[in-house]
Specification:
- The protein is of the alpha/beta class.
- It is built from nine helices and ten strands.
Length: 221
């Protein structure tokens, strides 16, 4: 599959590298075409590099791995025409550190990042996933034992199926993929990141090498 990964930070590079590793073609998108660091990294991993618009035009699937606070500007630079009809996988969180640590989880007129994308780019088929864990765990779920979970939110069942397929390619098993429902459910996973920050501190080493699991008991009926 042809995948555009928008964002050259640690999350974007980690996911792009993993997608290439499991056999997909990737273009890593950044704000400018002359981003030397992104060019060098892309060459090392066997992917390619371009602007946000060039990457989005290439991708059958577009992954938003930018910070949630700049997501709208990035997708505007990518071009609505390059997102129309495509699966747009949003892995971002909108975190505001202006008041120090821990950050605040920002909403946009009362909606989360993924909801905002779906609202402002209505022809895109938005799926929220992977935003509730460390980026190493995103790409390599086998680093954490057991049936820890990754969430899916989105209004388009086919888009969620495509996203689940990419998750499976990276090693997520069906038992670990939990579909929460429509795109409105993504707001809860974005708010969860604040709890994640506190849990990460409470676990001691702050490595982020953990994830949450859901254990379901038998019905009393």
């Amino acid at each position: 599959m042809q995948i555009a990964v928008l964002g050259t930070g640690e999350v974007g590079r980690r996911l792009a590298s993993r997608f290439v590793e499991v056999g997909h073609r990737v273009v890593l998108g950044s704000r400018t075409a002359d981003n030397a660091e992104a060019h060098a990294w892309a060459g090392e991993t066997g992917s390619a590099h371009g602007t946000f618009a060039e990457a989005a035009a290439f991708g059958e699937v577009v992954v938003n791995a930018t910070g949630g606070l700049v997501t709208k500007a990035v997708l505007e630079a990518a071009g609505a025409q390059n997102l129309a009809g495509k699966v747009v996988i949003d892995v971002s969180n909108a975190l505001d550190f202006s008041n120090g640590f821990p950050p605040d989880a920002v909403t946009f007129d009362g909606v989360g990042v993924a909801e905002m994308i779906q609202r402002d780019f209505p022809q895109a088929r938005v799926v929220k996933t992977l935003n509730t864990m460390n980026n190493k765990v995103m790409a390599r779920p086998d680093l954490v034992p057991g049936d820890h979970v990754v969430f899916l939110s989105g209004d388009d069942a086919e888009a969620k199926a495509t996203t689940a397929g990419l998750l499976r390619d990276m090693g997520w098993r069906d038992a670990q993929i939990l579909d929460l429902g429509g795109i409105s459910t993504s707001r809860a996973t974005e708010q969860f990141v604040i709890l994640w920050v506190h849990m990460n501190g409470g676990l001691g080493d702050g490595s982020g090498m953990w994830n949450i699991a859901v254990q379901q008991g038998a019905s009393e009926d």
